[in-house]
Write a structure and sequence with these properties.
Length: 442
């Protein structure tokens, strides 16, 4: 959708809302539809080709409005999470359809999803240990619980440990900045020998620093064997898994208890929209279910509905699945795949430009849309280059440290980015690098 069409469609939406407000007294206060009404009205999977805007708007009135805001808000989310799960080729255990035990929910962020998973895992292990040894108090168990992540995991994982009141330990990553089985097993044996209780592990697919991938096929079986909840955080990289050529990066997810990524990062859905799936939804509802009188309703014990307030921290929630529905239909699966592929292609174009300049080096393998690079030499000269780049305000780079190296990160992330922008950015970086190296020699 270009700017001209966006302007036209925006005016149409204002008219739609205004017409709704003018006719609101003619609409029912409470819907006639019964729980489960929506799924039969919507295809079982996302369209491969784009739908027209007119068709989507017509469906809003025909399918959504009869159940607005409940149960349409809930039921569309359930179906959209199944659509997205199928696009990723997630194991069926994570899907909600056909009365499975799992299902998907939209959280506000990957940070939220990690915290929700940790709290659910904490509740589950406490219940399990108290069932076996009723004399154990929650406090006695809590002080021995320990969670794990790679030393490359996002800081939000550490924060989840702080909020959850449990120890979190970082597993040293290998030369490719990935968590491997040997390092995890060593930490588990050491902690169990010290009387601690391993209960939760976060594996990252596409780390923030350098887009490295923990080895799920190695660490997954260990977590299953040790009865450790495995949460997979693919906040950035997860969007790429809709492309068959990148799906192998998700291999091993079958060992996970929960999986999360952010469509608002790289799948054209506006913030906030963080997709989370669990194999057993009772693990979440068992941790968060509370039913005061003022929140009870006639369908809550029917088994016909999904009550998402028991899947998350807040009670209130927005109609976030509606924007997923629009994006998936406006682009189609093929359009979204083309968008991802274009970004990956542009990142490799930038990588090629860097490799052609002997002054620079690529720091890690370029897999998706992130290129980690630096000037050969000291951290000081790279810090000076970054300062010049960001001060010039033509492009913006965010750095990281990989071991002892200060590294620059070039991320392809704009919806409208083209090869010309990449070329222009590289010319700009080269000019500033020449200035920095000249200043260092003087």
């Amino acid at each position: 959708m270009n700017a001209s069409e966006f302007r036209r469609r925006g005016k149409e939406m204002v008219d739609y809302v205004a017409n709704y407000m003018e006719g609101i007294e003619g609409r029912q206060v409470y819907p006639d539809v019964e729980p489960g009404y929506l799924r039969p009205l919507i295809p079982a999977a996302a369209p491969q080709e784009p739908d027209t805007f007119e068709d989507i708007i017509n469906d809003v009135e025909k399918i959504i409005m009869p159940g607005a805001a409940s149960p349409a808000c809930t039921e569309l989310e359930t179906v959209m999470m199944d659509w997205l799960g199928k696009m990723l080729e997630l194991p069926k255990a994570f899907l909600n359809e056909k009365a499975g035990e799992g299902g998907g929910v939209i959280q506000g962020s990957a940070s939220e999803a990690t915290l929700v998973a940790l709290l659910a895992a904490r509740t589950k292990v406490i219940h399990r240990l108290q069932a076996a040894s009723p004399e154990l108090t929650q406090a006695a168990i809590m002080e021995k619980l320990v969670a794990y992540s790679s030393d490359q995991a996002h800081s939000s994982v550490e924060r989840a440990g702080l909020i959850g009141g449990v120890k979190l330990k970082a597993i040293p990553s290998d030369g490719n900045f990935a968590m491997r089985a040997s390092a995890l097993q060593e930490a588990l044996e050491r902690d169990k020998a010290a009387g601690l209780i391993p209960f939760f592990m976060v594996a990252t697919l596409g780390t923030t620093t350098c887009c490295s991938f923990d080895n799920l096929l190695e660490v997954g079986p260990i977590c299953n064997k040790e009865d450790i909840w495995l949460h997979v955080d693919a906040a950035y990289a997860g969007s790429a898994f809709i492309c068959p050529e990148f799906r192998h990066l998700l291999n091993g997810v079958e060992f996970a208890d929960s999986f999360n990524f952010n469509p608002h990062k790289w799948l054209l859905v506006n913030f906030d929209c963080s997709a989370m799936w669990v194999k057993k939804r009772t693990d979440l509802t068992g941790a968060f279910r509370l039913d005061p009188t003022y929140l009870k309703h006639s369908h809550q014990d029917s088994g016909l509905i999904t009550d998402y307030r028991h899947w998350q921290i807040p009670l209130g929630r927005r109609f976030r699945s509606l924007k997923m529905w629009f994006v998936f239909r406006m682009y189609g699966v093929k359009g979204l795949q083309a968008y991802i592929r274009k970004h990956v292609q542009l990142s490799h174009e930038f990588e090629s430009l860097v490799r052609q300049d002997p002054r620079f080096e690529i720091c890690v393998e370029v897999i998706l849309g992130l290129v980690c690079f630096r000037l050969k030499g000291s951290n000081k000269v790279n810090e000076a280059l970054l300062q010049r780049i960001n001060s010039a305000k033509k492009i913006h780079l965010v750095p990281c440290h990989l071991r002892d190296k200060f590294v620059l990160r070039f991320a392809i992330c704009s919806r409208t980015v083209e090869s010309a922008h990449v070329q222009r950015a590289w010319e700009h970086i080269k000019e500033l690098a020449a200035d920095v190296l000249r200043a260092e020699r003087e």
